[in-house]
Amino acid sequence: MIRIEHLKKEYFNTTPLKDVSVEIHDGDVISVIGPSGTGKSTLLRCINLLEKPTEGHIWIDDIEITDPKCDLEKVRQKMGMVFQSFNLFGHLTVIENVMLAPMDLLSKSKQEAYDTGMELLRMVGLADKALNYPDELSGGQKQRIAIARTLAMDPDIILLDEPTSALDPTMVGEVQAVIRDLAKTGKTMMIVTHEMNFARAISNRVFFMDEGGICEDGSPEQVFEHPQMEKTRRFVRKLKVLELNIDNRDYDFPGMAGEVVRYCRRNQIPYKTANWLSLAFEELVHQILVKKLENPKIQTVIEYSEADEQVQMTVHYNGEAWDATKEGHEMSLSILQKAAKEITWQRAGGSNQVKLLIRA
Amino acid sequence: MEKNIVSNKENPARMTAEKERVSTRLITEEEEVKPKHRNIRRRRAATAIIAFLLFLLLLPVSGVIPAVPAISAVQTAAADEKTPPPGVYDTLDALADKTIGIETGSSFDELVSKRLPNAKKEYYNSKVDLVNALIGNKIDAFVADEPVIKSTMKAREEITYVPEYLDSFAFGLVFPKNEKGEELRNEFNEFLMQFKADGRMEALEAEWFGDDESDRQIPEVPAGEKGTLKMATAAQYDPFQYVRDGQVVGYDIDMVAQFCIQNGYGLEIADMNFDGVLPSVQTGKCDFAASGITITPERAESVLFSDPNFSGGTVAAVLRKESTDGKKGFWAGIAESFNKTFIRENRWQLFVNGLVVTLIITTLSILLGTILGFVVFMLCRRGNPIALGATRFCSSLVQGMPMVVLLMILYYIVFGKVAISGMMVSVIGFTLTFGSSVYSLLKMGVGAVDNGQYEAAFALGYSDRKTFFRIILPQGLPHVISAYKGEIVGLIKATAIVGYIAVTDLTKMGDIVRSRTYDAFFPLIAMTIIYFALEAFFIFLVNRIAARFDPKRRSPQQVLKGVEIHDPN
Lengths: 360, 569
Prior knowledge:
CATH topology of the largest domain in chain B: D-Maltodextrin-Binding Protein, domain 2
Largest sheet of chain B: 10 strands, mixed
Shape of chain A: elongated
Number of helices of chain B: 21
Strand order of the largest sheet of chain A: 6-7-8-3-9-10
Oligomer: heterodimer
Radius of gyration of chain B: 31 Å
Number of helices of chain A: 12
CATH class of the largest domain in chain B: Alpha Beta
Shape of chain B: globular
Helix content of chain A: 25-40%
Number of domains of chain B: 3
Order of helices and strands of chain A: EEEHEEHEHHHEHEHEEHHEHHEEHEE
Strand content of chain B: 5-15%
Number of strands of chain A: 15
Distance between the termini of chain B: 39 Å
CATH superfamily of the largest domain in chain B: Periplasmic binding protein-like II
Distance between the termini of chain A: 48 Å
Number of strands of chain B: 13
Helix content of chain B: 55-70%
């Protein structure tokens, strides 16, 4: 069991971890997700003290590793780590990479280390590369060796720091397969990853980290299906968001239309969809709402989900309960109908809300 | 593929395009193309070597290096003849605005300034250099003492001197300016008076300024009951002091030996460069010096002089008027030169002795320097600010100083009052410089190892020490092994200056031989070849060791030594 209390890591110019308190149980397989630069790797590296925390305490089982008197080397021997950049020992063959630590640190005999080593290499499918040097292997093979090297110490906890991020997309699969097998062995694992589907498939617990803290902590279903927070939802659905606000009649429509076009280009939204989106925005906001409302307060939120390639436009506006997609110039209404697959209106919290799912 | 090669040969214009295509193909194909490049390279290397050898052979012919001692048919002037054969210049006035060579540190500097104020002065380190510079027309004349030039004329017939004296001079022995020095000086002066009075002086002059080398014998000095005297000398000053059969002999030496025998002293001779003679007496490294030192008031301020043990005139050596070149065949000249350099007086032994000294200094300095550099690096590795600061200071001090200066400082200042041989000081000096190079190399090599290697080792549970020795060092060393070899070559070359502190290494021995033969070619070539061989030997050694310890060069059998392999199938 790992217990973390008020962990803080501060550099002179940034604070990647602000205040993290969490408990990790034996056998947990935890995926840590979140945008870049939000302290995911720092959290992982603090757990085996590769980064020294600025404040806070960490207990592994009942040993406080943040205590200066703690025998850190002993604790680390029971806690493996797999790095984004593999960090295989370049001067040793593959089998020696796997044999070295058990021989040096657990005083295993060479024979014993070799036998376990070969077994592990067979497990990761690389027994035939035993006598090769790391620089003769592909990235995926290197990472599998790195996993075997970690397992050779028979650790209770395995930390994986973006194990597939440095890999060619064609090699991600082979490494994920090995990690998937590993997750079934009942070892406590913590894996920082950007692969949502993979995270969802292997873990029983997901941390969503943002702004130096754990924002959401729950089962994959909770975090991926019913996120508590808007930023979690946007992140797990890989949403790209554009917000446009209008609060008087003399607003810069061409400027806003340009922003929509730029947003589409930036996120590589297919040309047709982008076209429908621009049309829907112009008709609904410029032609219908601004003309009708005397004192317009309109907020438009456009979301593009990379996962299912869908654009959704949500328009909040003031005034009485009124469905803007039902009344107005006939031409505008018909364009809206064409541009959207689905249109819903609802009255919520004293304002109107229209949701359009743009045609692909 | 075979077809391709054939077509390449037939159509060289297509070669480049073809090669590009080939290089993108399978590796096995590329290997077939390679030997051709290798042949071209080999041929080029051979051409370069042949060109270099031709160049070396042509040097003596073209006269750049006056290798062939021209034994002339011209009647050799008898040694006792009063007037020397006529020279290119025959009065001092003719030399007024010419270039005059002077031995560095000699009193002739002042003399030339006084007598020939308009002459251009050039400084050389030894008389042999002066002789060769004169013959090579780099200078018009050089200044030396009459008996010395007479002796030189026996070896090099191209030389004569202007009969007019620049100055008359007196040589004296030099003693330190302290109580002990004064006592010894007085003792010697008393001896000298007797020596002159009872005719022994005359016999000595006849012996050393005469023609017959076989007359010149030095009496054996037994270990004296009053202790051993250490004498400084620069034994390149025939006939006052020079090396024959590996032994320092000469007019001064003979006289000093007789003095020691009579007064019950033992004698130990330290042969060094002339520049080092006076400092070694001043600092107490030596008890006195006899090195044909002219008595001048300026020198008398810092040391004590004995009464003159020789008086004579200073003259300007110039080239002879009639040409004496090329009377002997080229090959015969080479053979003569070879004979003079190696065979006569068993001079090859000097080269062997010098080689041994150079080898000892080099080997010890490499070993100790490597250990020193490593130990210092280990102390500084963790960034201890005091160790780091001290190391930086010392290594910039040692590396920023010319090696000669460092050695002289060590010999005359740091160990000035300690009885320590020049060889030990050389080893210390070179250990320091080599150590600081090794330190920098280690820093560079270890710095080149990726930080991820540390992290991976720490994450596995390695301690800092174990990480360094098991993971980091084996990966850092291969980065710097070639630079290390370069440092070794540099060290071997740098040892050539230990002559400054009375160590007779290979270069010094070469100088000694040159000072006897006045022939630059063979001693220099022999030294070059020996140095090359020495460098090659050390590089070979390092390569062998590096190959042994390079983890990447092990065979699979070595990797899996002691492991029984069970085939799962």
